[in-house]
Structure formats: C-alpha cells, structure tokens
Design brief:
single chain; alpha/beta; Alpha-Beta Plaits; TIM Barrel; D-Maltodextrin-Binding Protein, domain 2; six-stranded mixed β-sheet; 21 helices; 31% helix; binds phosphoenolpyruvate; binds manganese (II) ion; lyase; DAHP_syn_2; transferase; Prephenate dehydratase; Class-I_DAHP_synthase
Length: 647
C-alpha cells in the first residue's frame, strides 16, 4: 500500500506509524515529493486500509494494485539507478541518462580469449564484461565453461580494463566461489527466471542482478521474479529482454521491444536488451541493438567473439569485434536523439594544480549560469561522481581556466546543426595556444519560451536569449513580430534575468531545465525551428594535461577524429595542396572553417575536422604523419586534438 502522509505530520506521529508497520513486518520506502510525502509499504500481513488510515498523521492510503509490489512504480516513482564501481573507482550507473553496453564472449574459453575480447570491447565503449564461466546449457553435450578457472580469468580481464564483471549463476552452490572472485553483477539466465530458490539466494547477496526474461514469461511473471530478488534484499535488479518464443521461426526468438516501454510504466527498474539471444543471426544483431536504444532501453548486452566460427558456444549469436565497434559508434550517434549519451570508462586522472575549489572531483568549466546547455553537456559527458561543473562568465574565461590549470577541463559549444559555427570558440583556439581538444559530445537542443509563473503568452513583449537561441527559433519568433529581442550571455542568464525581474512582459528562450531551476513557467515548448537541432560541444584541456595522459583518450573509446588549425602559404594552390594531404589518405574532412587573422589584412587561418580511418592502423601515428606533412606545406599548423567524436 502507498500511505500519503499529512503535510503537518509530527516526527512522533511518523515514528508511531513506521513502528506500527515494522511490527507487522512491512518493508518501507519513503518518497519525499514536492507536493506530498508518501511511504510505500509491502508485507505479507493483510492490513485493512481503513485501519492504517485511522493512524494519526495519515492523509489517505492507496492499495498497490499489482501482484508485484517492490518492483512496481506505485512503490517507487523515480527510476532506480543501479551503481557499479569498477577497478578504477569509477561508478557505472545503469538506468540514468546514459546507455551502457555489456559485452563479451558467450563463455570464457581461455585466458587469451577473454583478455583479447575485453581489450577490444573496452576500447569500443563497453562498460561491463559479460561472459559465463559456468554455462547452463540447453543440451548436456555442449561446452559448459571453464568453471573456477573461467572466473579467475574474468576477474583479471575486468580489473585490467576497468570493466565490472557480469556472469551467469545457475546454482546457489556457486555463490561462495563467485563471491571469492568478486563477481560484480550476477546474471540469472532465461532458463532460471522462475527458479525461485535461486532468486531468493542471489537476491540476499545485495549485489546487482541482471534478470533475463524467460522466453515463455509474460512481463508480469518477469516482474514477479524481480520481486523475489528485491524482497530477498537487493535493490539493484536490471531487467533484460532477450526474445520470447512465438510462431515465427526465422529468428531464434522474437525480440519483444515493446516490453521496454511497457516495463517503463510498470516498474522503476532499469531495462536492458539482449539482441544476440533474441535474433540469433550475426549480421542482424547490431541493427536490433540500435532498435533497442531507440525503444528507450537503458543498455544493451551482446555476445562478442573474435572468431565465432571457432566459438565453443554461442557461435551464431556472436558478433565480431569490428561489428561491435561500428555498432557502438552508431549507438553514439543515436543516443542524443533519445536525450541520452553513452557511458564510457574514464581513463583520466585529477590535476594537482591550484584549483578553484578543494573538491577532489575533476573541475569542468562552462560559460553561463546553472542550467546552461553546456552544463547539461558536462552531465552527459562526465559522471556526476567524477566531475563538478564550474560556471564562468565567458567562453574565453573557460579557455583561460584550463590554460592556467584552475579547472581540469572545459566544455564549449563549437557548432550547431541549424545555426552553424560558434565562431568565438574557433577564435579562442587561436588565442589560447596551449589548449587542445580532448573529446566531444553532442546534445539535442530543445528550446522553450519561459516566463513568470503569473504570465501568459499574451503578456509577452520582450524576449531574452543567447543569439543562438534566437537563431534556432526563428520560425516561432516570426509569428510574434511585435516582440523585442534582447541578447544575453547565455540562455540560462536570460532565464535568471526574467526570474529576478517581476515583469510579466518578459520571457526567455531556454531549456526546460531552466524553468525548474529558476521557477519559471513554460509558455511554449519545443519552439526550435527543426527537431534536428543539435549542438556539438568539445571538451578542452591544456596540452600539458593531455600529454600527461600519454595519448590516452579521456574515456576508453577509440579516437576517430582529429582537428587541425593551420595558415596556408601565400602562394597559388596553397590551400589545394594542403587539402591534398587529406585526399591522398582518402580521409573525410567533415568541417573546414576559415577565420580572419587579426591585424593581417585578408589573411586567414583554417580549422579542419578530419575523420580518421581506424582500420588504417594506429590513429595517433596517422595523425602524427599528417601533422609532419602539414608542417611542410603550411606556414603554421597545430594539431588541436585526437579524440572520439560523440556524434
Ligand atoms: C546468455 O546470456 O548467455 C544466455 C544463455 O542467455 P539466456 O539466458 O537469455 O538464454
Ligand atoms: Mn550467450
């Protein structure tokens, strides 16, 4: 039942109420909302609703209508985010706004095999290593795994690459051994979904559990199994859709992607999807992983094997590392559409220079006020547990702060899909010679018109925003030609301005995050000209900091992009010859910008983004060779960074 508390409930009354519920063996979950505080209570004893309603301090009681209780949305409104720490101390969260990928071979076959797969999937962006040491098979004649030896290799590989280990448990007898090898996440296989004794035992460990849906189970049955885990003691259950049995035989199972959306409303638990065991056709797996992300899944789990033809199990369900790498880049591109980004293993370290705060976290500077899009980009790229966003007054302050080491990184917008380049930042790169690019992230920008709580659309006379906010909402503003438009430093500055001036005629264009932060009302939503409104931000850092990381990318994801700035020689064919360096290598120039050089009439420098072919070998070596050749053909050149493009 859900017990809604009276607003004026005293501490004594609350203690009385919880003591009463505890005395009847109820498990409680208190949720403090803005409007009301509720206690969700589940237990075996059947209490009369009116009996609880009579207890002082209780406003009303709503019975939980579902047969599963702790797994239901009624018990807990906000999403559960499962936290798993890796060997580098980074916390991987499943169920937040980042997509996670778990990957590995179906079964650990040898030390060499698991180390090789772990290295490759980590580099492509997996954050969990998943493989079986003990493999319950549907046939007694297939490979059952290496057993304890497999657990040992899994642990070694997981630790080396910062990937927490997920492994299947088919029998409670294995619990002590799996605990000894520090298994991070237990997987209950589809075949064991209704092995209730096993669920109770594994649930009581309090560790995260991936619960796979049986191919014959309804979603309600899946949630009843989750209820066994939750009521036994773990709060960290991740549901996994892996295909159900239908009359269709052209795929191994039928991947039930609508389950993701249905589960979202029934439960607060994170949901991931395993396209490998559902589809069972190698070349069709990556597309279904993308479909899973598009359906709103919190992550995907796929079987990856370097040599599936020789795999001792799961051959046809496994994709090869190259497919996985491509799949991860595609997911990376899709994530912003879903308002999400992809989790990566962090490989940076904290700077020791003078800092603006004594926080042990990385300090990441952005320009604007709380709620700015750049602050959201920081939240996407870094993890809240590892980074603190530092608000500064301008883009050049952000560059300055990373140049002098008072912040570790900066997050700056560089281009927008509707409005083009953010020229100031191109210019800042030429001003701050020691600042380089360490990474990039793309955000889907959605604007709203925000006004005072008491205002309505007809009151508006003046609208404040960053010029980009105006530029991206042109069509909407054209319908209100009488409004005066006033530029602000950032959209969040505009929102703050409107909130702090008691005039109903003012409005700001900014994100709905700003509405919440500054207590404003959303007068119109999604007013951008085109839903394809994306801003690409780059993460900047001092060259010193990037060098210290010895060419290691900021996150454990393969770099695929390099940025150069150069000035050409003052001779005919100079630009043509320079660009020939990229053409010769068949490299795709995704962006070429030219900017005037101050004080040198009609002279420009160029900024170029180049996609590097990872297939052509070491990306850093390729960039070094391009750089050497550019040095020869240009007047001046700087390699701004080799990084993974988050697009
Ligand atoms: C597995 O995940 O390797 C597996 C055997 O899957 P399922 O339990 O979904 O069949
Ligand atoms: Mn498998």
């Amino acid at each position: 039942m859900v017990i809604v508390l009276k607003k004026d409930i005293s501490n004594g009354q609350k203690e009385n109420l919880t003591a009463f519920l505890h005395s009847h063996d109820f498990k409680l979950n208190e949720v403090k909302g803005e409007e009301e505080t509720v206690i969700a209570a589940v237990g075996r004893v059947k209490l009369d609703v009116s009996e609880v309603e009579l207890i002082p301090g209780v406003q009303r009681v709503i019975p939980i209508s579902r047969p599963y209780k702790m797994a239901s949305r009624e018990f807990k409104k906000e999403n559960t985010v499962v936290e798993i720490k890796n060997s580098k101390g980074q916390i991987i969260r499943i169920g937040g706004n980042r997509i996670v990928a778990a990957a590995g071979p179906c079964t650990v076959e040898s030390r060499e095999q698991i180390m090789r797969v772990a290295a490759s999937v980590a580099e492509s962006g997996a954050v969990l290593l998943r493989s079986a040491a003990f493999r319950p098979q549907s046939s007694p004649y297939t490979f059952e795994g290496l057993g304890e030896e497999g657990l040992k290799y899994l642990k070694e590989a997981g630790e080396k690459y910062g990937l927490p280990v997920v492994t299947e448990i088919g029998s409670e007898n294995l619990i002590p051994m799996m605990q000894d090898y520090g298994v991070d996440v237990y997987q209950i296989g589809a075949g064991n979904m209704q092995n209730f004794d096993l669920l109770k035992k594994v649930g009581s460990l309090g560790k995260p559990v991936i619960l796979k849906r049986s191919y014959t189970a309804t979603l309600e049955e899946l949630l009843m199994s989750a209820e066994y885990l939750l009521s036994a003691g773990t709060e960290n259950v991740i549901l996994c859709e892996r295909g159900i049995r239908t009359f269709e035989h052209s795929t191994r199972n039928t991947l039930d992607l609508s389950a993701v959306q249905v589960l979202r409303s029934l439960t607060h638990l994170p949901v991931i999807v395993d396209p490998s065991h559902a589809v069972g056709i190698r070349e069709k797996i990556p597309a279904m992983a993308l479909a899973a992300v598009a359906s709103g899944a919190d992550g995907v789990v796929v079987d990856v094997h370097p040599n599936p033809e020789k795999a001792l199990s799961g051959a046809i369900l496994s994709i090869v590392p190259e497919q996985f790498d491509k799949m991860m880049h595609d997911i990376e591109a899709l994530a912003p559409v879903m308002g999400k980004s992809v989790y990566h293993i962090f490989s940076g370290e904290c700077a020791k220079s003078e800092r603006k705060s004594d926080s042990k976290k990385l300090l990441v500077a952005y320009s604007g006020k709380k709620g700015a899009y750049a602050e959201q980009a920081i939240g996407r790229y870094f993890d809240a547990s590892e980074a603190e966003a530092v608000a500064l007054d301008s883009f050049s302050d952000v560059f300055q702060s990373v140049a002098d080491g008072s912040c570790d990184y900066g997050m700056i917008p560089i281009e927008n899909s509707l409005n083009g380049s953010v020229y100031q930042n191109y210019d800042n790169f030429s001003r701050f010679e020691d600042v380089e690019i360490a990474g990039s992230v793309t955000l889907n920008i959605r604007h709203s018109l925000l006004g005072l709580k008491s205002a309505s659309l007809s009151d508006i006379k003046t609208v404040y925003s960053h010029p980009q906010g105006f530029g991206q909402s042109k069509k909407y503003l054209d319908q209100h030609k009488d409004w005066a438009l006033v530029d602000s430093v950032s959209t969040s500055t505009a929102a703050e301005f409107v909130a702090s001036h008691a005039s109903k005629s003012n409005a700001a264009i900014g994100s709905i995050v700003n509405a919440e932060i500054y207590g404003l009302k959303i007068l119109a939503e999604d007013i951008e000209d085109d839903p394809g409104n994306f801003t690409r931000f780059v993460v900047i850092a001092s060259r010193d900091r990037i060098n210290k990381s010895e060419n290691k990318p900021l996150f454990n994801i393969k770099p695929n992009m390099a940025s150069f700035i150069f000035t050409t020689k003052n001779e005919s064919g100079a630009l043509y010859n320079t660009l020939g360096i990229f053409e010769k290598r068949r490299l795709n120039l995704t962006r070429l910008e030219s900017r005037p050089i101050k004080g040198q009439l009609w002279k420009s420098w160029f900024y170029a983004d180049v996609e590097i072919n990872k297939e052509d070998g070491d990306v850093y070596a390729q960039c070094a060779s391009i750089y050497e050749e550019l040095k020869d053909k240009t007047e001046e050149v700087r390699l701004l960074g080799v990084y993974a493009d988050g697009r």
